[in-house]
């Protein structure tokens, strides 16, 4: 039996060897093909990145799939990559390489589900390519990616105006009625108007709102309308600079003029004006069709107001249990929170009665403006006729008055960029500002925690005061060291004058030269300013650091010390420049000019740098001086005609009849 089975065993072994050889050959073949594909992909990708169109076309001509060959690990074809990189001519040339019978292959989708038409939505330079794509494969217009977005949605999400306009016209031409809605609203309820606003293309959003008015009231999955989304971002304001506004008047912001701008350097200014103009139009349109402020909470609250801490305090504490889901605030309050003053002003201009709107916490627009430190909205509302009287005495559901809201400040990201002393000063000034608006009774009202507004403010800002104290002491110490060092240098320079002294008389040799007097005055000013700044910093260090000190006293002392220190540094630079010119000047014109430029360059640079840093401070000083002039000085210079007296000496006077 063993002898008979031996040939069969040899035969079986031979078959196994042959199978293994074939498998190995097949594996090697696949490996070689993969290596070849990797090499081709590398060359193609590099040629696409280097904008070598001829090489891309030559490589595609040598591949079986041609321009439909996948280049990236995300299944992007050559046409995908060329379209994404705005290569319109190359894309059209690649499309011409695809045979008419293979047009259905143009619907290939990458790993995210995007077609080549989706890629045109990322830029405005492939509109011609998009036209050719739809001519060859019209079904591309209705195809969606894995986020259920058509190419039209994709263009709206990227905020590309020209390609969106073309795709939108194509959609409206080929789809009407219920079919059109599938292109306008995504599965998650987001509309193309939502996406246009999120992309900050306000011209596109305005055109969408005008064409599809029903989208202005559509809500996304989070219950946000387009106006609510717009209210969540602080809009970039139009420039108030005179020179910039003069240039803006010469620039046409129309979308059709994007390719024929005045100059390349004006591109950013034109974009800014374009965005401002259309944002204003969009706000007017959306506000006109939004009446969400009508849905308000009741002004009635079960929380009883108390004016002292004695007696049964439980009446001021009431737990309100609610199971309602958190809904977004109205555009009026969202704009107040996020600093979109333009939206607030437009709502109140079109609907003055919206000033009565109250949120779920029982807070009106002034409560919200104070909490989020929106001074522009606060001032705008207070200055409106009758608005202050209607809102200033109101309390929320926790019995918080407007003064209480100063202590309920929401942490601002920008506050981290300022020193804690300046943040505390802003809070103190806000408290004083709100106190001028509120009634006398508001100062003694207790909230649901049985605290007055002043108690709540001090409690919330006590930690900030400690931080501000440490910050000011540390800053004053550091500045003092610098000021003493400068004073030492200035004092030594006063007795080692440039050019030396006459051995017989002891007087300076160069004292008759004008620059010598310049040096003497600058050095004396530097020494005097440095010593003055030392006194100011020592005064800061030894202060009591009470809350009221941070409102003006401490900040003024620190600012005065810093200013004197800066003057000291500037004068020391001037003295150095004068010394350099006095000792090195050769009497030649161009040599002297060069020497003057080199010597005084640090002074000029310092002045520009210092004024740029202190721009905000100088601006606040200007507005304060303007306010004082309008309020106190202008009435003395110009007095309006006196109004007829109605009450005089405690008795009413009847006004004279007309004509007398």
Automatic annotation (TrEMBL):
Listed SMART domains? ANK
What are the record keywords, sorted? Membrane, Transmembrane, Transmembrane helix
| Parts of the chain that traverse the membrane | 518-541, 562-587, 593-613
Every PGG domain range: 470-582
How would you describe this protein's topology in the membrane? Multi-pass membrane protein
> Where does this one sit in the cell?
Membrane
Q: Which GO terms describe its biological process?
A: transmembrane transport
Q: What is this protein called?
A: PGG domain-containing protein
Q: Per the record, what is one GO cellular component?
A: membrane
- Which SUPFAM superfamilies does the annotation name? Ankyrin repeat
């Amino acid at each position: 039996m063993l002898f008979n089975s031996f040939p069969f065993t040899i035969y079986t072994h031979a078959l196994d060897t042959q199978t293994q050889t074939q498998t190995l050959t097949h594996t090697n073949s696949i490996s070689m093909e993969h290596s070849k594909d990797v090499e081709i992909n590398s060359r193609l990708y590099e040629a696409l990145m280097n904008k070598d169109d001829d090489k891309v076309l030559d490589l595609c001509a040598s591949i079986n799939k041609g321009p439909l060959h996948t280049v990236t690990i995300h299944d992007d074809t050559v046409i995908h990559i060329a379209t994404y990189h705005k290569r319109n001519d190359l894309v059209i040339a690649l499309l011409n390489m695809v045979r008419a019978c293979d047009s259905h292959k143009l619907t290939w989708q990458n790993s995210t589900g995007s077609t080549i038409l989706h890629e045109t939505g990322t830029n405005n330079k492939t509109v011609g390519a998009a036209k050719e794509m739809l001519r060859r494969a019209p079904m591309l217009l209705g195809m969606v990616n894995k986020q259920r977005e058509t190419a039209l949605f994709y263009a709206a999400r990227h905020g590309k105006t020209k390609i969106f306009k073309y795709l939108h016209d194509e959609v409206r031409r080929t789809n009407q009625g219920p079919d059109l809605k599938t292109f306008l609203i995504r599965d998650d309820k987001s509309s193309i108007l939502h996406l246009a606003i999120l992309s900050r293309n306000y011209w596109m959003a305005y055109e969408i709102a005008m064409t599809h008015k029903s989208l202005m009231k559509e809500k996304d999955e989070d219950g946000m309308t387009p106006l609510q989304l717009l209210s969540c971002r602080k809009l970039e304001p139009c420039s108030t600079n005179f020179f910039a506004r003069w240039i803006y008047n010469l620039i046409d912001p129309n979308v059709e003029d994007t390719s024929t701008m005045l100059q390349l350097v004006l591109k950013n200014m034109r974009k800014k004006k374009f965005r401002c103009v259309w944002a204003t139009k969009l706000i007017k349109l959306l506000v006109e069709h939004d009446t969400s402020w009508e849905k308000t909470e009741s002004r009635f609250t079960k929380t009883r107001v108390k004016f002292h801490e004695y007696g049964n305090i439980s009446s001021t504490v009431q737990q309100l249990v609610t199971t309602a889901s958190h809904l977004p605030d109205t555009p009026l309050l969202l704009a107040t929170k996020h600093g979109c003053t333009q939206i607030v002003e437009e709502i109140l201009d079109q609907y003055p009665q919206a000033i009565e709107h109250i949120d779920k916490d029982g807070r009106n627009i002034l409560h919200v403006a104070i909490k989020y430190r929106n001074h522009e909205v606060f001032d705008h509302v207070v200055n409106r006729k009758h608005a202050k009287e209607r809102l200033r005495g109101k309390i929320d559901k926790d019995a918080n008055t407007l003064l209480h809201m100063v202590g309920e400040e929401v942490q601002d990201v920008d506050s981290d960029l300022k020193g804690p002393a300046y943040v505390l000063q802003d809070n103190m000034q806000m408290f004083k500002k709100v106190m001028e608006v509120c009634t006398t009774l508001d100062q003694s009202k207790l909230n649901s925690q049985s605290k007055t507004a002043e108690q709540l403010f001090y409690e919330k800002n006590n930690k900030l005061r400690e931080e501000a104290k440490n910050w000011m002491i540390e800053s004053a110490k550091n500045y003092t060291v610098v000021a003493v060092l400068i004073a030492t240098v200035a004092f030594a320079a006063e007795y080692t004058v440039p050019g030396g002294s006459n051995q017989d008389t002891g007087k300076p040799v160069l004292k008759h030269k004008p620059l010598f007097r310049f040096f003497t005055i600058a050095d004396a000013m530097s020494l005097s300013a440095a010593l003055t700044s030392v006194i100011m910093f020592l005064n800061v260090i030894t202060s009591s650091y009470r809350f009221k000190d941070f409102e003006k006293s401490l900040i003024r002392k620190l600012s005065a010390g810093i200013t004197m220190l800066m003057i000291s540094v500037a004068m020391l630079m001037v003295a150095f420049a004068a010394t350099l010119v006095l000792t090195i000047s050769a009497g030649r014109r161009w040599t002297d000019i060069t020497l003057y430029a080199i010597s005084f360059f640090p002074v000029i640079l310092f002045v520009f740098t210092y004024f740029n840093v202190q721009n905000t401070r100088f601006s606040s000083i200007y507005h304060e001086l303007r306010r004082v002039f309008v309020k106190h000085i202008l009435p003395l210079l110009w007095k309006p005609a006196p109004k007829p007296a109605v009450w005089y000496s405690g008795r009413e006077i009847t006004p004279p009849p007309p004509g007398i």
